[in-house]
User: Fold CRISPR-associated protein, Cse2 family from Vreelandella subglaciescola.
Amino acid sequence: MSEKPEADSSQERLIVGEQELKSLAALSLDEAVAVRRWWQRLALSPVELKQLTPQPGLPRGVRAALRRCDALDAVLLTQAFRELWHTLPSTTVESSFVDARLEQWSCIALVLAELRAETPGKALAARLGQQASTGKPIMSELRFQQILTCRTPEELVQRLRRALALAGRSEMSAVRLADVIALWWREHRGSLSARPTHRFGFILANDYFGAAAGYRHDDT
Assistant:
């Protein structure tokens, strides 16, 4: 296998901004860049993509084939996943925990395929906590709590797909979405940060309730 060229960190920081990079809890800079470029090639139109990168978009139907997958094993067989996997840094794909990595990244690919348009830097939970036309959060607090208590990868994918549908599949960062999924997987494998502010539950709850606090008032 040929070695991948070393990344140009100055160029990477143009793709993933400084503030967005600081918000990441589980992804490396190289992984974040790979995620954004892959999602852009997967989801954007040729005109939109040309404004961001000289790389060609993925063939028509690739995203649809990924979205039709109903199991993580099926994701591994798709062209979309292969394209993502081969753009990840060697430290990721050549890890001694490659089986676990494959599961994690298949989950990321399957969820990100639901995103149609992104807002770099914006968190999924902050989008879900925004005010809907009803005057309440886009996602109810009960449904949001169900995301925080997911116990299996299948449940996580199901709930995140529903969350993206409620959010209009837009107005959030592909990179930050991938990051919270990677963080869930890290904790699922038993690696819990010693810092509460770096844990899955706290990060999502802080974003969600922070967004809701701007318009919601307790009844008195």
About this structure: Residues 17-215 form a domain with the Peroxidase; domain 1 fold (CATH 1.10.520.40).
